[in-house]
Amino acid sequence: MDRPIRVLVGKPGLDGHDRGAKVIARALRDAGMEVIYTGLRLTPDQIVQAAIQEDVDVVALSILSGAHNHLLPKVVELLKVENIYDETLVICGGVIPEEDIPFLKEKGVAEVFTPGTPTGVTIDFIKQNLKRA
Amino acid sequence: MDLAERLLKGEKRAAARLITKVENNEKDALEALSQIYPHTGKAWVIGITGPPGAGKSTLTDKLVKRLRKDDKKVGIIAVDPTSPFTGGSILGDRIRMSDLNTDPGVFIRSMGTRGYLGGLSKATQGAVKILDAYGLDYIFIETVGVGQSEVDIVKATDTVLMVMVPGLGDDIQAIKAGIMEIGDVFAINKADREGADRTKTEIEMMLDFNHKDWRPPVTKIVAIKNEGIEELVGQLNKHKEYLEVDDKLIERRTKNSELEILELTQQSLMDRVLNSDEKREEIRDYAEKVANREVDPYTVSNEIVGKILAKNS
């Protein structure tokens, strides 16, 4: 692919810890991707509307508040309502308990990256799982 | 229905996808741009430029919110730098505009410069046309944080808003050539900081030396506190009214179109005659000779141009 991959990096919900999101944004930048960094405390609707306007390949969300089981399915649901889920890879990072991961995947989150994941793993996953040519 | 038709029907996703295609230089993009061109020219295009950290995104957010009160539909194209090393970028202008994400009357698009040096990206002007045809009343282009010479914004806009902040240098900075010459309206942001009055005086003095019909107004604002926004919108509208009498607007747009045609033609010529593998190889062969001082680069470049012209005459 000779075009840059566009990734929205954002934080849904109410926690204010964006160090992880910034680290991953920086790593994706260094991997040649265009990162649209949307910042803190966004609603699922704000994220999805931004994803439409920015025409991103990937929506990467960071959550440390514990509200992932609520927020992530909501984002996927809205992407489906807007007819862009089929073209958008949804991934997530943050403090997510192991036992919640199967539920999130069933709800349409492609992969969950827990603390300690090397950034290279996330980068490779994105490159290999894009839904759009 | 193709993308251009869907765009003209006001479909947001079509606008977004078409901008992507223009950015990626896809071949059907130019066709779509020609198709929509007759539907453009209705939006008022305002460029917002100024040094990094001057508050361009925060100000854009406030201006757009003000215009939304009058029910104007607004587009924002926010440009941030692309890494010359990896091709990657962090586009962070949306951070200051998150309330606008869900407003159906607002469309925000972030763009990386992708190697373009004038403060915009190569696809910016295409994106403006797409948002214009999509049916917006105002389009803001926010440049990358500029230094002294990134003046491309003036070629793409009807009004240039220059955002300055106190404390960036002495009055010589204000009279240097370059970006200080392109502002139609000046805002001094963070005017609650020390030195704002001095900065204002210096800019006013610089502007007093210009002998043009339009004397750019200078307004002190504090964007984050929404102070001075009403006055600034008034100044922007005054500039619009100024251009709209006589033929001044069409004059400005004609000048911009001339530059745009020139640039597109240069690019296209470059792509056609210079970017072939064969030509690249020829240039590499010459380069070795030039490095070994067998021949000078001026003669070589003349020879190359001569050959291209001979072939095409």
Relevant terms:
heterodimer; A: 133 residues; alpha/beta; Rossmann fold; 5-stranded parallel beta sheet; 5 helices; 41% helix; B: 313 residues; 2 domains; 7-stranded parallel beta sheet; 46% helix; 13% strand; globular
Provide a descriptive summary of the structure in words.
The complex is a heterodimer of chains A (133) and B (313). Chain A has 133 residues and is an alpha/beta fold. Chain A has a single domain (6-128), classed as Rossmann fold (3-Layer(aba) Sandwich). Helix content of chain A is 41%, strand content 23%. Chain A has a five-stranded parallel beta sheet, sandwiched between helices. In chain A, helix 1 (19-30) links the parallel strand 1 and strand 2. Chain B has 313 residues and is α/β, with parallel strands linked by helices. Chain B folds into two domains: 40-244, 3-Layer(aba) Sandwich (Rossmann fold), CATH 3.40.50; 276-312, no CATH class. In chain B, strands 4-2-5-1-6-7-8 form a seven-stranded parallel beta sheet, sandwiched between helices. In chain B, helix 6 links the parallel strand 6 and strand 7. The longest helix of chain B is centred in the C-terminal third of the chain and has 27 residues, at 248-274. Classes of the chains: A alpha/beta (133), B alpha/beta (313). Chain A binds chain B through residues 3-4, 6, 25-26, 28-39, 41-43, 45-47, 49-50, 52-55, 82-84, and chain B through 12-13, 16-17, 19-20, 23-24, 82-83, 86-92, 94-95, 98, 101-102, 107-110, 112, 114. Chain B: Keywords: Chaperone, GTP-binding, Hydrolase, Kinase, Nucleotide-binding, Transferase. Chain B: This is LAO/AO transport system kinase. Chain B: Pfam families: MeaB.
